[in-house]
Amino acid sequence: MKKNFDGVPREIIFGLIFIGLIITISLFFWREQSLLKNQTDTVVINGQTIDVQIADTNQLRYQGLSGQKKICELCGMLFIFPETKVEEMVMRNMNFPLDIIYINNNKIVKIDANLLPEGADPLFIYSSELPVDYILEVNSSFTDKYDITVGNEVTFNFKNKK
Q1: Which of 121, 133, 138, 142 is least enclosed by beta carbons within 10 angstroms?
Q2: pLDDT at 124
Q3: Where are the alpha helices (DSSP H) in the chain?
């Protein structure tokens, strides 16, 4: 073993430098994630804050939550539509059941609860029945658990104005 710096083996010095780099990089990424978490888009209904992924393009709205393994308990996907009209949703390629919350003018106008996943060719189509400008998908039973009902006010907190 070659020695350096007052008789300390070079391998130990390099090992300590390597560990220091790993810690520095980890702290950097942890800090970035913390900053991003503070900038998450949220929806508030009945006092409950929900972190949301945004689906505001045709491609993102078509994809939705399809293929995702799960979402956290207080998470969802918010579909933003360019115009207010009747919208339809399906459970294509879903891996978990959902509640679908239909929103117009910052109020819930309809809820479809406990919808089961379907494959590539879904059999069921879920309609808002009324014009909507947003649809929020959350985990199944979320609306029951947090006492979310038709008529509840909805507040949107976007990190970038939508």
Answers
A1: 121
A2: 96
A3: 10-37, 58-63, 142-145
